[in-house]
Structures are given as C-alpha cells and as structure tokens.
Amino acid sequence: MAPHPVQAGLTRPARPRDGRAPRADRCHTEPVDLKRLETTMAELGQPSYRTGQVWEWLARGAGSFDEMTNLPAGLRADLAERLPISTLAVDASARSVDGTEKALFLTAEGRPVEAVLMRYRDGRRSLCLSSQSGCPLTCTFCATGTMKFGRNLTESEILDQALHFRRIEPVNHAVFMGMGEPMMNLDNVLAVCERLPEIGIANSHTTISTVGWLPGIQRITHEGPAVRLALSLHAPNEELRSKIMPVNDRYSMREVVDAAREWRRIRRRKVFIEYLMLDGVNDTPELAHELADLLLPKNDFKVNLIPYNPTGTVYRGSPRESIDRFRSILMSRGIHATVRLTRGRDIDAACGQLAAKAAAA
Ligand code: SAH
Questions:
Q1: Which residues contact 36 (CB under 8 A, 6 or more apart)?
Q2: Contact 112, 91 (CB under 8 A)
Q3: Share of the chain above pLDDT 90, in %
Q4: For the segment 159-210, what is each residue's pLDDT rounded down to a tens digit?
Q5: 353 CA: nearest ligand 1 atom
Q6: Cross-strand bridge partners of residue 228
Q7: Tell me: the pLDDT tens digits for 239-273?
Q8: N or C: at which end does the chain have fewer Cβ atoms within 10 angstroms?
Q9: Distance CA 97, CA 92 (A)
Q10: Ligand 1 site residues, Cβ closer than 6 angstroms
C-alpha cells in the first residue's frame, strides 16, 4: 500500500536511542522564554539591553547564539550552555508540492503544537500560528476539536513558531488559524501581535480568527494593536450554527455578528467571514441567501468561502459547483466573496490535522 501522503512527506529529526521524542525538558537546560532570557542576563551580570540584542537577532532569523556577533563571545557561550534557542522542539515537518510547509512542535512537557508557512506566487509568506495546544471548543468539523485540550501557549511558544519559519526565510503575513481559540488566550496573543512587526509582519497583515468568543471581540474593539479580525461563521442561522459549532449555544450568532459590526465601526476595517463549505450541510442556495440577509444591509464584511479539507469527520467538502453557486448568489446580493485557495492538502495542513494524526499514531 502506498504510504499516506503525510507519512510520505514527513521528516523527523533523529530520535534518541530510546525512541522517545526529543523534548526540551530532557535537555540539561531550561527551555528559554524571553522572560527567562531576561533573568539569565541578570544572573550573568549583563546589562538589560543585551536581552534586546538577542531578540533582534532572533527576529532577523538567527538560529544560534553563536551568530549574535555583537555579543561578547563568552556571553554567547554562556547563553548557549544555559538556554536552548527555542521553547519548542521540532518533532516533524512536511512540505507540500505547492510549497506549503508545516511543522509539528512539542512543548517542553511534550504537548503538540503545529504551525504552517504558506508561500504564494505574489511573494506573500503567510504563517498560520497556533495559540493553544489542542482546543477546548468542539467544532464538529475540526480535527483539533477532536483532540484533548492541552493548555494555552505562552507568548514565547507562539513567537517561537514564527521564528522557526523566519529562520527559513523572511515572512510577511500571519493568521491565528492554527490550533486553538486565540481569544481564549488573548493576553499572550496580543503580546505576540505587538512583537510580530519586528519579525517583518505588520499588524495590518496579522489576522486573529475566532469562533465568535464574544468577550475577546469586545476587548479588541477597544484595545490592542490594529490587527484584522476574522469570524468563523460557517452557518447563517442559530440552529444550524449550534449544530456544527456548540460554542454558538454560549455566544449566539446574533450577538457575535453585532459585536463584529461594532468592531468594524470602531476599527474601520472590514471583518473577514470564514465560511467552510460542507456538502449538503451549509452550502445550499437558500442558505446563501440567508447569509446575505444576515450580512446586509451594511457592507461590513468580506466573505471567504473555504473548501473543506476532510479530516475523518462526518463531513465532506462541497463540490466546486456548489461553492461557485454559493459565491455567485452572495456576489449578486452585493457581498464580496472569494474562494480560499487550498494549500497543503497533501500534507494535512488543515487545522489540527497533523497533530491529531500524530496523537493517534
Ligand atoms: N478557533 C479559531 C482559529 C482556529 S481554526 C477559529 O475557529 O476561527 C481556523 C479556521 O480553520 C477556522 O475558520 C476553521 O473553521 C477552519 N478549519 C478547521 N478545520 C478545517 C478543515 N478541516 N478544512 C478547512 N478549514 C478548516
């Protein structure tokens, strides 16, 4: 039997003899995070600007302390001895025929985290970042939702996903569409957004995607950096949305859409509506009209129709004709809608897919 594409495309770093995954907590050193870097500098009797110098190097893609040539050689050696360069260990990586690259990391205590780099012809280099290991919300179509929830990731664990890819090449866009619900870890997500411009990703090129976690949307309406907002809607009425996204019973679609409109009014940017196309479930012409009714009259939104990446759930992706028909209806009603390019299908690049497979293996 031919190997499954994800197995075929997967390369794992060499494992220790006992076959256990390389884990940062098995190193003799503590996993770095930026706060720990600060305390280490203080312990070493270094001035605080040294921490900033290390960060500048990391943000420009340095992969080792040794490269940081404006630090004294002795300090570089001390740091290398005390701190690994990342809080995350790469457990596996895969590269798609379309250039999409996916990494599965492990936190210090061995929790899975995944991130993806998408390369586009126009030069965009877009990162898909995870904010949690696993996810406590149980969206019925999502591979991450079927995994056990781990925990919120720290600021450094999120940044280290970006730095991993920055070491490969310059990057310029980021979306929080990996594992987890970013609004449930908002302090850390916003702290990361503040730092991303130093890695090359402007706030206007950073998108936080949410299931509709109402307090989070309300908070970023009034505070935090000027990032973009995407709302995973996936259904145009309460009943259907509750069926496929149980979180809808907690924060109703109506409240969430109102909050998105308020965000648009204050932040003056359109909200992206994510709408997964599920065959025979949410892709009928009637539902396209219902979605148009919901989003009109004011043009506060841009709809992104997402072809479904099958993940072993009960759903099938809509055929191309249904997606095109759905889009035409929205356009004819004056709603801007695009169909998202599918990337990395051959490497299971959809949310949670690689980690869920690894957990099941
Ligand atoms: N919790 C946040 C961010 C993570 S999911 C949110 O829900 O917005 C990011 C996007 O990927 C969501 O729009 C989600 O619906 C979509 N997604 C999840 N599983 C998918 C799959 N199998 N194929 C395509 N898109 C998927």
A1: 30, 83
A2: yes
A3: 76
A4: 999 999 999 999 999 999 999 999 999 999 999 999 999 999 999 999 999 9
A5: 22
A6: 207
A7: 999 999 999 999 999 999 999 999 999 999 999 99
A8: N
A9: 17
A10: 141-142, 177, 181, 209-211, 232, 274, 276, 306, 308-309, 311, 350-351
282 alpha carbon to ligand 1 midpoint, in Å?
15
Ligand 1 centroid–CA 245 distance in Å is: 11
Look up residue 325 and give its two tokens.
């028909």
- Residue owning the nearest CA to atom 21 of ligand 1: 309
φ, ψ of residue 63 to 5 degrees: the values are: -110, -5
- Rounded to two decimals, the pTM is 0.89
As to burial, measured by CB atoms within 10 angstroms (0-12 exposed, 13-18 middle, 19+ buried), residue 175 is buried
Atom of ligand 1 nearest to the CA of 128: 9
Q: Is the pLDDT of residue 25 over 90?
A: no
pLDDT at 212: 98
CA–CA gap between residue 31 and residue 44 (Å, rounded):
17
Ligand 1 center to 1 CA (angstroms):
31
Q: Tell me how far the alpha carbon of residue 50 lies from the centroid of ligand 1, in angstroms.
A: 39
337: Cα within 13 Å, side-chain hemisphere: 24
> Is pLDDT at 10 greater than 70 in this prediction?
no
Which of the listed residues 126, 183, 209, 245 should we mutate to test ligand 1's pocket, taking the one with most ligand atoms within 8 A of CB? 209
128, β-bridge pairs = 116, 175
